[in-house]
Amino acid sequence: MAGRPAEPEVIWARPERSGRGPKPAFSRADIAAAACRIADADGLDAVTMRHVAAELGCGTMSLYNYVPRKEDLYELMVDRVSGEYDLPEKPSGDWRADLTTLAHRARAIMHVHPWMARLMSAVYGFSPNTMRYIEYSLSCLDSIDAPYGEKMELVAMVNGVVTTYVANELQTAERTKSLPWSADQEHAVRMAYLGREIASGRYPRLAAAFAEDSGPIDMEAVFDRALARVLDGFDVRRAETSRPVTP
Amino acid sequence: MAGRPAEPEVIWARPERSGRGPKPAFSRADIAAAACRIADADGLDAVTMRHVAAELGCGTMSLYNYVPRKEDLYELMVDRVSGEYDLPEKPSGDWRADLTTLAHRARAIMHVHPWMARLMSAVYGFSPNTMRYIEYSLSCLDSIDAPYGEKMELVAMVNGVVTTYVANELQTAERTKSLPWSADQEHAVRMAYLGREIASGRYPRLAAAFAEDSGPIDMEAVFDRALARVLDGFDVRRAETSRPVTP
DNA sequence: GCGCACTACGTACGTTGTACGTAACTAAGA
DNA sequence: TCTTAGTTACGTACAACGTACGTAGTGCGC
């Protein structure tokens, strides 16, 4: 009788080891590592209970002793990757620079694990490492005199920008890992359709946008500008207690 | 022999009706409507090829004559909902007001179809109605003298804010539609864990944030502020050709 | 009117998450 | 020390999914 209740439960609230019985063969860290290894190699869709169990070298159903539901596996993955930040002991004091650095680090991490962005917009909760991350983000704003609610909103916005933009950059590549054709083929077909529609004249401004120069788009620059504008927006409201808008 | 190639294809590029053979029993609009009906009623996870076919009153595999892959069904859904905007013939000329109105309309539509936000961050491409939407968004910026690339980036940011925030608001409710317990139960359990962690003293700033007043959060106000800040950020850069930052 | 492209749909396969039962094991209580 | 109850391990099984494939019927273009 496996004591898995049909009630909601947070995986972080259940003890990893409970006195009785044989000692578990794996730790949560082992499991998270295995799942991340699979996702890195074959994409998020390859992360199935069977594959992860096989990667660990145990039976499929044994995994359910550690991870009551598949969603919890996702939470383990997010938490593990969130632990890859090497957060400095103390922020520098320049909140804008600190948050920018942090956002770039987040973007870099999500590029290493292209499934992370998609997962973060699907997974709901707080986990030890995400809390550590948020706590550090808040500490970047220590020099600012504002209610924490306001700071939280800024942190949320920065996180939102990061996940939105990186997801946008990477979703095609990630998605086509489990498709029978390549990302290039997909892109080509969609661009062909778009080109035909634009040539119809129904969307003059869209056409103008695509006609414009159009060297290859520098995604990092786009990301930088978006982030800068969000911080600008916050800066404007706090111009009096913080540094001026245009440095 | 069903002529479905294992090659990428954009559903909008295939003709709805091709001369030969018996006339199709359904239009793409019928199918999109059926799928949206199911998603509205039972959540996005209930949108399966079998259910949609049943809703239409045809065999499961008949659906594949209209929709080569399930992803295309998603595209039909996004396009249909994107058609629910009643866009004015011409924007008012005040780009900030126009974009704000549009963003609020988008938010309202996504509240009517709580699965829409999740779908929009998963679905990749342009469709007739999304192009119409983007074209209109660009037309809101006609009064601004900036390259279209810059305008596109602003439009993308506004869309990003809308989907990110609405997805965040609604994902729990949507998700628990296919779960055996209620959203309230889930929320309670997660908050209990969060409370315990916060009480541990490891996250003092997070604790302070949650200790702060904390009347019920007005999600629309949060959304408003986020949007305003994004527009502020754009305003700052264009202050010289546009209206001043603080009205 | 002939033929072929199209529609319709039942069957079937591989894959998924996971409920359930059973056997082995070990720490806690007698 | 011996029992015993809770845990771990895992094979089997099931319902549901996307969809490949084959067959039968239909009606437009030649």
Our count of helices of chain A gives: 10
Rg of chain A to the nearest angstrom?
A: 22 Å
So what's the oligomer here?
A: homodimer
Order of helices and strands of chain A: HHHHHHHHHH
Please, what is the average pLDDT of chain A?
A: 90
User: What is the tally of beta strands of chain A?
Assistant: 0
State which percent range the strand residues of chain A make up: under 5%
- Largest sheet report of chain A: none
Biggest interchain interface, per-side counts? A-B, 74 and 74 residues
Overall spatial form of chain A? flat
User: Which blocks of ≥5 consecutive residues of chain A have pLDDT under 50?
Assistant: 1-5, 240-247
Structure description:
The structure is a homodimer of 247-residue chains. Chain A is an all-alpha fold and 247 residues long. Helices cover 58% and strands 0% of the residues of chain A. Chain A has ten helices and no strands. In chain A, α3 (70-82) runs parallel beside α6 and α4 (95-112) runs parallel beside α7. The longest helix of chain A is centred in the middle third of the chain and has 28 residues, at 148-175. The first copy, chain A, is flat. The N and C termini of chain A lie far apart (65 Å). Chains A and B meet through α6, α7, α8, α9 and α10 of A and α6, α7, α8, α9 and α10 of B.
